[in-house]
Amino acid sequence: MELPFAESWRIKMVEPIRKSTRAEREQWIREAHYNVFQLPAEQVYIDCLTDSGTGAMSDRQWGAMMTGDESYAGARSFFRMRGTIERLTGLSHVIPTHQGRAAENVLFSALVREGDIIPGNSHFDTTKGHIESRRAFAVDCTIDEARDTQLEHPFKGCVDPDKLEKVLAVNADKVPFIIVTITNNTAGGQPVSMRNLREVRALADKYGKRVIFDSARFAENAYFIKTREEGYADKSIKEIVREMFDLADGMTMSAKKDAIVNMGGFIATRHADWFEAAKAYCIPFEGYLTYGGMNGRDMEALAVGLDENTEFDNLRTRIHQVEYLAKRLDEFGIPYQRPAGGHAIFIDASKVLTNVPKEEFPAQALTVELYKEAGVRGCEIGYILADRDPVTRENRFGGLDLLRLAIARRTYTDNHMDVIAVALKNVFDRREEIRHGYRITWEAELMRHFTVRLEPVAD
């Protein structure tokens, strides 16, 4: 008999979490203006808001933190981190930052100018925000298959080469670089194939452009290449990672995801001119070049996390739990972006709350209903997160409207996944009763979803 699947780690420390009553949750979400970002963590039972900085570090990471060098300049912890990054990616110029959006801020300050056009595959919120705040334009070139949540396609995160070439052919002089997000978060945590990365590289070379990888979940992307793409089953994750980054000119990374640290990020590039340009912004925005907003102990944990999470068993354990939740949702007929991605399940709110008009933000309504049902905090990846068009200032309703349930790494058990699944089923069973969503009462100009205030739309 084949042995059942089990985690590749054992639990060494636990943290208590508190259950609450529905009456309490209804009061709390009302006080938070129906924005789950505004809820104190103590009011959340199972937190699926994000997988960013919420994972459990390993014993090796905690041990490494004790050896952190906190020297202001030239700390050995920086050189250890830089060595790990270069070994994995081949990118030798490294600038640490306190997290991924800081890496974008530093690098884009050097590279993006007003009127520029940056094509890519479904730029995530901070990426698009950093582009549009500089009065540049993010152009989505994701394949059309990503828009059909029920279509089974192994690499829905891919760039459409035809769409990309049309942008380059018409606007080549306005394109400072191409950006590829691995995995594609906005499209549902969907991976990008090695073949597609080569297609992007070929087009970049044809038009004399450079390529940046938004690399927050690059290790999970490598796992899907190994398990889904022909010719990679016998390659190690580290071999696949190196092959991926051989096709890039640079990267930004939120290390809070695939390096499994609570805080940290970096820029890495193979080009000295990009490195020199970014250095000028690192010091005033982040800190000196060998710490860039990070402690030495955090750089030590980051280096170990990168090494650990580019091993197959660790990734398999993590992605298996996401797949487990997907299978439970299949039992209940709940529609999500298929196939399950690497870090989250993305519920298709437009197919669940069919009575809620898009102008009333169905994914946000589903997010609130799930919280009231069981204290599970998810995150709307939809029409609120899409922000307004920077020119017309109209809401953007052209993309997917999803409830993301991000699963923290090495943090919850499959029993917690069962709670999430049953809570969603309970909401799904009464979906016909939910006829209205929310209206915005206050919003920021950019990245409004973090602080937006909402109120229910009544009959």
Give a structural overview:
The chain is an alpha/beta fold and 459 residues long. It folds into 2 domains: 22-51 and 313-456, Aspartate Aminotransferase, domain 1; 59-308, Type I PLP-dependent aspartate aminotransferase-like (Major domain) (Aspartate Aminotransferase, domain 2, 3-Layer(aba) Sandwich), CATH 3.40.640.10. Helix content is 38%, strand content 12%. The chain is built from 15 helices and 14 strands. The chain has helices at 22-31, 59-65, 76-89, 100-111, 125-132, 161-171, 194-206, 218-228, 237-245, 272-285, 296-308, 312-332, 349-352, 362-374, 414-429, and strands at residues 46-47, 93-97, 117-120, 137-140, 178-181, 211-214, 250-254, 265-269, 344-348, 376-377, 379-381, 402-406, 438-442, 453-456. It has a 5-stranded mixed sheet with strand order 2-8-7-6-5, sandwiched between helices. β5 (178-181), α7 and β6 (211-214) form a beta-alpha-beta unit. α12 (312-332) runs parallel beside α15 (414-429). It is globular and about 60 Å long. The chain starts with 21 loop residues before the first helix and ends with a strand. The mean pLDDT is 95.
